[in-house]
């Protein structure tokens, strides 16, 4: 069984919605299991999400990683960055080297900094030696989406009136999850 960690921080549920679609994509691949986890909120030292808080052992032992964050001023959210700032032991041991990874985000506007946020999330993954995957243009929804989705990763635009994913956004998130799972399976052979 290939276990893929879907790690995210979500304050209002939009990033969590993408995480769940990515998990569906992962589990569409036979022999793959999605493990949904979040990180502690820095202000309350807990999480309001329905998923448990990730452990360093879960990260070290996963076969691949999908990581998501809301856009915070064009950057990943502080709780997620704080988590990665504590992974030096995994980095020294090389626990994540050659594992596939992808990133996803949500923002409140189309030009809120989605692509820069995706790029900031890639940096710790690259430093850990992970292989970062995007969404290829062979995915039809990447050509038709009007509410999110980039070759860098799955995205969505959420507003106070609508936190549900649009059809194309959900399709792209599932495709990214399926691609991550298929790659992890190939690497395990």
Automatic annotation (TrEMBL):
Alphabetical list of InterPro entries matching this protein: Flavodoxin/NO_synth, Flavodoxin_CS, Flavoprotein-like_sf, Flavoprotein_WrbA-like, FMN_Rdtase-like_dom
Pfam families the record matches: FMN_red
Coiled-coil regions listed in the entry: none
Swiss-Prot/TrEMBL cofactor(s): FMN
Domain Flavodoxin-like span(s) in chain numbering: 4-181
UniProt keyword annotations, A-Z: Flavoprotein, FMN, Oxidoreductase
Enzyme kind, highest EC tier: oxidoreductase
GO cellular component labels: membrane
UniProt protein name: NAD(P)H:quinone oxidoreductase
């Amino acid at each position: 069984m290939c276990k893929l960690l879907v790690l995210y921080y979500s304050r209002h549920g939009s990033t969590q919605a993408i995480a769940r679609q990515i998990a569906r994509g992962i589990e569409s691949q036979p022999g793959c299991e999605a493990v949904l986890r979040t990180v502690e909120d820095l202000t309350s030292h807990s999480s309001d999400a329905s998923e448990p808080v990730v452990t360093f052992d879960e990260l070290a032992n996963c076969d691949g990683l999908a990581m998501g964050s809301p856009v915070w001023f064009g950057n990943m959210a502080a709780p997620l960055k704080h988590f990665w700032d504590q992974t030096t032991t995994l980095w020294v041991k090389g626990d994540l080297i050659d594992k596939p990874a992808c990133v996803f985000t949500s923002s409140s506007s189309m030009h809120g900094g989605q692509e820069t946020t995706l790029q900031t999330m890639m940096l710790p993954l690259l430093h850990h030696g992970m292989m970062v995957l995007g969404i290829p243009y062979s995915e039809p929804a990447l050509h038709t989406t009007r509410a999110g989705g980039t070759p860098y990763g799955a995205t969505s635009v959420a507003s106070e009136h609508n936190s549900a994913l649009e059809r194309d956004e959900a399709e792209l998130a599932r495709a990214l999850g399926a691609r991550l799972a298929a790659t992890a399976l190939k690497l395990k052979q």
